[in-house]
Amino acid sequence: MAEIRLPAERKYETELAALAKADKDARPPGWALSPKAVETYILGAEKPVGGVAITPKYVGDRSLVQVAIATLASDRALMLAGEPGTAKSWLSEHLAAAISGTSALVVQGTAGTSEEHIKYGWNYALLLAEGPSAKALVPSPVLRAMREGRCARIEEITRTSSEIQDSLISILSEKQTSIPELNEMVTAQRGFNIIATANTRDRGVNEMSAALKRRFNFVTVPVVEDLEQEIKIVTRREAELRSDYQVGAEPPAEIARMLVTLFQELRAGVTKDGKTKLKTPSAVLSTAEAISVLFNSGILAQSFGGGKVTADDVTRSLVGAIAKENVDDVKVLREYVETAAKGRPGPWKELVASARQHVRSGT
Questions:
Q1: For the chain, how far is it from start to end, CA to CA, in angstroms?
Q2: pTM for this structure?
Q3: SS3 for 234?
Q4: In 3D, which of 252, 215, 202, 190 has the Cα closest to residue 32?
Q5: Chain segment 11-27, per-residue pLDDT in tens
Q6: CA distance 363 to 359
Q7: Bridge partners of 153?
Q8: Of 206, 243, 245, 310, which has the maximum CB count within 10 A?
Q9: Could you report the per-residue pLDDT of 305-333, keeping only the tens digit for each?
């Protein structure tokens, strides 16, 4: 059976191997690649490395990526902060894959995350039968990363309770954690670090303590404001998803441009020419959401349309994205269609006609 999604280190195994073979720069202890090679893996290379094309994994500020890599080479942990859908988790995964050779040591932060997810738990059948032992211990991804000298990832750290967050303080400060039941102190091996992500607009956020913040270097991943850059991100990632899921309906370039323009204008609350002010929906119209809408449009076109992505497919996918937080936000889309999209040429005409039908019915 085919896997739905391959981790970065397996999907880009050939690229990572080529970079490792060609990498002549000094590597920090425990790292699979040098900082420069990690940067090349993340941002891509103009020329093939060892005959292998190195594709961009993240399209954005080079300085931001360099600061993130430099942080992980220091004794400070890395916090990738920003609005939802700005590729924080994507960047986190690829950094871990390039530095440690695995992105699998991950804790997903939720309201139900416990200290066992951060430190360790027990196989209670063995614990009751044999008592505390190394065999009965169930190490967390963080503990495994400490022992193996790798990067651990903590996604949505601010969704965990303050008590659970603060369980990281001693780990980040002393690079040690104790297992009193075994009378053991685990000391992190060289190469260990933590990459955390935090959404600034997420509901249910628990503010981090000042003590924990001091253990992190914060790097803010910005919302993409440049139209051409965001189009490039959306089309590249959508093409990868189509390949993974074997969807043959490729969205025309003008459809992708229309969608990203719509997203940027609704986010900014004003049209690109600055002449018309717009209402903004409560939903976060992120780059990730634009990718999802465009990809879903391709599935609609292939499965239920004529095999070619149209503005009607985009509209049907768009309604759900707009109304995700508040169903009344369909009114924002309706107003946008009548004030900003109306009168524009090309696929915009079909978008207006389709939106008048689907936005009215909410389907």
A1: 34
A2: 0.92
A3: helix
A4: 190
A5: 999 999 999 999 999 99
A6: 7
A7: 106, 195
A8: 310
A9: 989 999 999 999 999 888 888 888 889 99
